[in-house]
Amino acid sequence: MPYSLEQDIRAANAASFGAIEIWVNKLRKFLEGRTREDLKRLLMDSGICAPSLCPFGGFVLCSEEDYRGRTEDLKHFLEVGDFIGTEYVIICADGLGNVSFEEAKRAYVSRLRRLSSVTSKYGIKIALEWFRELPPAIDIVKAIDDEHVGLLVDTFHWYRGDGSLENLKKVPSEKLLFVHISDCENLPRKELTDKNRLYCGSGIIPLVDVLKILEDKNYNRYLSVEIFREEYWREEPEEISRTAYKTLIDIALKSRVSIS
User: CATH homologous superfamily of domain 5-255?
Assistant: First the structure.
């Protein structure tokens, strides 16, 4: 997190990653003094694609005024994403608020259908990132019933929610658009926060089983290593990326799943 977008891209290339998920605040800073043409050239020179922009949020349970303001801000990044070949924007869930699930679901369906009508104009899909148990999210994306809206599964959030492999199996294959992958410390679920994330294979999350389930679903999209751990950030970006790549490949080998 302390490093620039340019450093991230070059480090990903050095570690043999083929893609990078662009952190939006880093993109904002990059564009303060550079152009989208500069970004595209940097990606091409590094042999890296940028399939997703992450994160955006606050679209569902906000006021109509806030929704419109957030949408206008998002359009700027959709234009950049379209130019560099981005496939997904990561939209963080707002939870369920202080309303019933049915009321919250209606809000998700209404707002994300509207938002999809915007993102789809740029050829970009919405991957909804859910932060707790998966069944409500599955119900919501099914109800949205839009080919441009699907689900992002984050292994840390999934494990913290309930870690149910059976619930993971219930995610419709056609609705699984993106995966964030990391491990975490062996702590009670209610105590887990992002700072407890670990490199793949260093913790308690059954990542081998998760990868096998993804393979059964014929998931052939991206695995984005996402670890918010300040201890790791003290290393140079190239070292962080190399360790992230090696530990991901090690887990894939254990699961006998091919990653390219």
Answer: Divalent-metal-dependent TIM barrel enzymes (3.20.20.150)
pLDDT in tens, 72-117: 999 999 999 999 999 999 999 998 888 899 999 999 999 999 999 9
Residue 93 CA to residue 148 CA, distance in Å, equals 16
Gyration radius (Cα) of the chain, Å:
18
Torsion-angle region of 22 (φ positive above 0: left; ψ -120 to 50: alpha; else: beta): beta
